[in-house]
Structure to design on (1076 residues):
């Protein structure tokens, strides 16, 4: 690892001041589980001058709930989300998604903010600098995406164009299914962004002087059902090959409202609106479920080596609706 | 079974257990020598290129940098088999190949200096496929190897070497066959067995003619044996630290030693080169690639009448041990495929992949994983159940085979069919086997299939061993045998053997440190030789020491040596256990008694393992999950029950069974870069993903040594891959003839894609 300064922030304002001073050369560290990997491999060109410890900010790790919804501080650890009774009771999809992340050691230090802001796992992007030099690509600001012609088994089946890397966050999928918003503070003030709008093909919307401070989750309708399914090569450690987050509320016997969100298929959590349209107002019978599963991959354009993700997506959507 | 033994067959705490769990054991990272510098390697971005210019001026001027070396600064020392791999060269042969070396006061300074070295390259066409490499007639990867093919010459230490099985008359064999199958199958996933600790060396020149090295090694004597010719015949003292896993890889790969040795020479200081995990993935030892094109003749009763073909071995950018691995693989395949007519030739080929070398299974796993799926097609034609086939065709007492040194050996061990039967019964093979291409069961979108694989190895008595045992007057024994600890527990097992012979408390028997200067020659724990070969030398040395001691005692007791016994460091006459004399009364406190033991190679005994597997294939997602595994073996006599269980549990990982499911290195053929050289994208099974495992371990006494043991050794990983391929075929009814069985391959086979 190259040397860097390490500063402990005492507040959000303090953090933003440090970020503003260093203009993109400062990186935030909470659990560090994503950041340290990137620093050690030196996969990205810009190595931070300053690493800002934000664990020292008091009060940013709270789980609070009222009749309106749930609020999570950005420093809430994934392990605490898994264990929270409030969350297990009314927002179980969050506990399930958090429990599916990596392994206990990671969940004990990894935070919700870090999980949302983590960098892609694209293996071209993450190629270690020490072995012949990092691989440059669109996401790093120059050169074309090698994954298009290369081994793209874990890449996007939706969108892409210039970068086919997928968003690896499980929490983003579950939060998007709950229609959550990410609260951001920066030099210009505070703003809040829907989870589905937080990501773009080359990263996320955070400016260099901004940080995530929390997440607001609206309370879902009564009688809703929440499902999170994550498909992966190994049950432990692995990132999703494909994941599905489903929040559905029923009106007597038909679907009143539904959100179907797919993970690891696009640059952010992907809302399968065609599948949702195929479900609203209908009974969840096998024919409708099948139609919704098919509709979930409408518009998918798989690359040379990831068409299997289309099959897995359909299967997961079907399974989620059958539960 | 303990057979009345004091220690053999009983669980005893490993002698290093407390040190490991308390952090006291000294692994490579713990070793620091005063004045030591740190070496780092500048690595190539190209898979194949000539270096046209290297500018090291800025790096040399950096504060804290003590040496920067390129190919023009160092002697042309080469290692490998044959000797051909230079430390640095004017060209690079894979992405991650060494271009320049830096020694500095700290690892961070050395790493920073690498970025200041500018290199210009003239790229050359790169080739990754074994057959494509053989067809290239211009710009070979090594100028001396036309068509990228290594010569068939045996190495200096083995006057003859098996490179081609020629037995009987294959034409006649094919004429006699009821069915003939011709097919090609590859086992070309280049997995990394991934010992937790990366490799490394500390090198320090004691004199211009003597190099001392510290390294975590599986067999430290090999470092000296093959290291001396590598560094221009200077002497080497090689010392092994506690080794954090090897799985075959930390035997003969001298890459980091070369870097440390030339940097130490240039600086006059000890230099430590400790690979990062990334270097461990990209620039060390992967499993060989293997592709077999074979023709197989079989009779209706399951008799193999002829096997012919070519075995193409892809050793990547250099051959660490390829010719010997081919020789051993060709020997091993005869142990599981009895056939009167053979014509199977090995070909060793280099490509621009990362280097491949020694990984447990040592050629045999590679060959069997490639040829057994083809044999499976022949079995299906003949309509024979694979368990019956292997019972019929695996080695039986009186059968012969060519072994690696080209000589014909006759097997004199036990029949393993009892182990096969017990394994089959435990697994429920009879109930689960529904025929070739037929699932055991279908539950909705889940199809269950079963398969079986087999491996046997006559390397239990491989190569030579030497040991001495010193008895001291205070009633203790020191075993001198050059054995390093790579996690196998064998250092403790060897103490148990000596303690058993000498009837001493185990805590009074210790083993010398793994240091080539202190110990007699000992090849080390390679192959499966620990129990029989190394054990024989230790037993012989302990017996010799005991005999010498009792001969001295005979004067005191006015008896003959054979009328005396020793127990817990005291000697008595048989029948008079009340009259005991302590050893110091016999030998005197100023003396010790030393016995010597030696073992000569013996390839007439084998170990054996059959692995039964059950897989579940999800026809919707294409995912294959191993649900059940039964390993069946006959170890002769178990020495350490828990250690043996652990060895068998090793069947999945370390480039074993899981190479059929998900272990592989992924290459980007456009750039020549390995894409998954990290601990997340390289898929290795975790403890959270273990299936139902049962081990069936029989103990039929083997005519080996005093304790009738042969053990299991390295072979636990070998039967798994082909067994999984067979099980997947049975589950889905369509053959997949390559590894691993990814979701894409399954969905394609099911016609979904």
């Amino acid at each position: 690892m190259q040397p860097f300064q390490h500063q402990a922030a005492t507040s959000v304002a303090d953090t933003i001041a440090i970020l503003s001073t260093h203009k993109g050369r400062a990186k935030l560290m909470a659990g560090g589980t994503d950041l340290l990997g990137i620093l050690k491999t030196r996969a990205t060109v810009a190595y931070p001058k300053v690493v800002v410890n934000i664990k020292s900010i008091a009060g940013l790790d709270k789980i609070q709930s009222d009749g309106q919804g749930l609020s999570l501080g950005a420093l809430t650890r994934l392990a605490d989300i898994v264990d929270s009774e409030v969350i297990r009771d009314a927002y179980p999809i969050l506990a399930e998604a958090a429990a599916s992340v990596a392994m206990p050691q990671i969940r004990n230090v990894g935070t919700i903010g870090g999980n949302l802001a983590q960098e892609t796992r694209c293996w071209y992007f993450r190629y270690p600098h020490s072995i012949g030099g990092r691989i440059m690509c669109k996401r790093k600001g120059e050169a074309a995406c090698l994954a298009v012609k290369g081994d793209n088994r874990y890449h996007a089946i939706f969108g892409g164009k210039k970068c086919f890397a997928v968003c690896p966050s499980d929490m983003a999928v579950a939060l998007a299914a709950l229609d959550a918003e990410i609260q951001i503070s920066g030099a210009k003030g505070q703003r809040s962004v829907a989870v589905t709008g937080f990501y773009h093909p080359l990263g996320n919307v955070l400016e260099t002087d901004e940080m995530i401070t929390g997440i607001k989750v609206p309370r879902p309708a009564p009688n809703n059902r929440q499902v999170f399914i994550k498909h992966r090569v190994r049950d432990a450690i692995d990132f999703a090959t494909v994941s599905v987050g489903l929040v559905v509320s029923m009106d007597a016997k038909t679907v009143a409202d539904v959100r179907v969100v797919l993970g690891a298929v696009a640059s952010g959590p992907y809302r399968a609106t065609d599948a949702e349209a195929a479900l609203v107002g209908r009974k969840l019978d096998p024919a409708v479920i099948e139609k919704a599963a098919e509709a979930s991959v409408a518009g998918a354009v798989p690359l040379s080596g990831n068409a299997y993700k289309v099959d897995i997506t359909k299967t997961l959507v079907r399974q989620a609706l059958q539960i | 079974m303990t057979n009345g033994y004091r220690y053999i067959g009983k669980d005893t705490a490993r002698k290093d257990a407390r040190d490991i769990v308390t952090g006291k054991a000294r692994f490579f990272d713990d070793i620091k020598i005063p004045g030591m510098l740190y070496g780092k390697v500048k690595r190539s971005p190209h898979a194949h290129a000539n270096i046209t210019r290297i500018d090291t001026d800025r790096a040399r001027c950096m504060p804290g940098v003590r040496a920067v070396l390129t190919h023009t600064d160092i002697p042309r020392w080469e290692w490998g088999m044959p000797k051909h791999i230079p430390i640095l060269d004017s060209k690079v042969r894979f992405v991650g190949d060494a271009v320049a070396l830096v020694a500095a006061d700290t690892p961070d300074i050395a790493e920073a200096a690498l970025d200041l070295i500018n290199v210009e390259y003239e790229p050359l066409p790169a080739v990754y496929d074994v057959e494509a490499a053989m067809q290239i007639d211009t710009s070979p990867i090594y100028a001396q190897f036309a068509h990228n093919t290594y010569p068939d010459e045996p190495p200096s230490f083995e006057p003859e070497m098996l490179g081609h099985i020629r037995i009987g008359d294959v034409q006649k064999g094919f004429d006699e066959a009821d069915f003939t199958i011709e097919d090609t199958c590859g086992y070309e996933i280049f997995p990394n067995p991934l010992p937790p600790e990366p490799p490394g060396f500390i090198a320090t020149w004691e004199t211009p003619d003597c190099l001392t090295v510290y390294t975590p090694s599986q067999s430290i004597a090999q470092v000296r044996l093959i290291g001396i010719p590598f560094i221009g015949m200077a002497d080497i003292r090689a010392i092994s630290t506690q080794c954090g896993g090897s799985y075959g890889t930390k035997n003969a790969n001298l890459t980091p030693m070369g870097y440390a040795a030339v940097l130490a020479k240039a600086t006059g200081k000890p230099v430590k080169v400790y690979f990062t995990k990334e270097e461990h993935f990209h620039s060390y030892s992967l499993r060989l690639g293997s592709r077999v094109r074979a023709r197989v003749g079989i009779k209706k009763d399951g008799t193999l009448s002829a096997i012919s073909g070519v075995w193409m071995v892809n050793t990547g950018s250099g051959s660490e041990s390829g010719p010997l691995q081919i020789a051993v693989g060709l020997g091993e395949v005869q142990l599981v495929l009895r056939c009167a007519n053979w014509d199977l030739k090995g070909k060793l080929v280099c490509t621009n992949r990362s280097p491949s070398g020694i990984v447990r299974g040592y050629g045999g796993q590679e060959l069997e994983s490639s040829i057994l799926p083809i044999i499976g097609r022949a079995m299906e034609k003949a309509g024979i159940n694979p368990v019956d086939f292997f019972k019929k065709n695996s080695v039986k007492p009186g059968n012969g085979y060519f072994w690696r040194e080209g000589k014909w050996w006759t097997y004199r061990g036990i029949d393993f069919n009892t182990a096969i039967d017990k394994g089959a019964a435990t697994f429920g093979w009879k109930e689960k086997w529904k025929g070739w291409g037929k699932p055991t069961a279908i539950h909705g979108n889940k199809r269950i299939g079963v398969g079986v694989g087999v491996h046997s190895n006559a390397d239990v008595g491989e190569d030579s061993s030497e040991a001495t045992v010193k008895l001291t007057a205070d009633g203790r024994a020191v075993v001198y045998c050059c054995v390093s600890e790579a996690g196998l527990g064998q250092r403790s097992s060897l103490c148990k053997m000596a303690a058993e012979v000498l009837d001493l408390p185990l805590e009074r028997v210790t083993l010398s440190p793994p240091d080539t200067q202190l110990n007699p020659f000992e090849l080390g724990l390679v192959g499966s030789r620990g129990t029989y070969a190394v054990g024989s030398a230790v037993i012989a040395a302990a017996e010799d020491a005991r005999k010498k001691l009792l001969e001295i005692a005979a004067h005191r007791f006015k008896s003959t040596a054979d009328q005396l016994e020793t127990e817990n460091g005291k000697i008595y006459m048989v029948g008079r256990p009340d009259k005991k004399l302590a050893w110091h009364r016999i030998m005197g406190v100023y003396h010790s008694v030393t016995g010597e033991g030696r073992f000569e190679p013996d390839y007439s005994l084998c170990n054996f393992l059959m692995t039964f597997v059950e897989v579940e294939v999800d026809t919707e997602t294409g995912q294959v999950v191993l649900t059940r595994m039964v390993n069946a073996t006959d170890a002769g006599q178990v020495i350490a029950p828990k250690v043996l269980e652990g060895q068998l549990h090793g069947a999945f990982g370390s480039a074993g069974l899981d190479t059929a499911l998900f272990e592989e290195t992924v290459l980007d053929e456009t750039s020549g870069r390995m894409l998954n050289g990290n601990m997340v994208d390289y898929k290795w099974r975790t403890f959270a993903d273990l299936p139902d495992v049962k081990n069936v371990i029989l103990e039929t006494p083997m005519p080996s040594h005093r304790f009738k043991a042969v053990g299991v050794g390295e072979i636990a990983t070998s039967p798994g891959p082909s067994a999984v391929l067979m099980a997947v075929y049975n589950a889905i009814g369509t053959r997949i003839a390559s590894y691993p069985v990814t979701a894409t391959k399954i969905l394609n086979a099911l016609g979904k894609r």
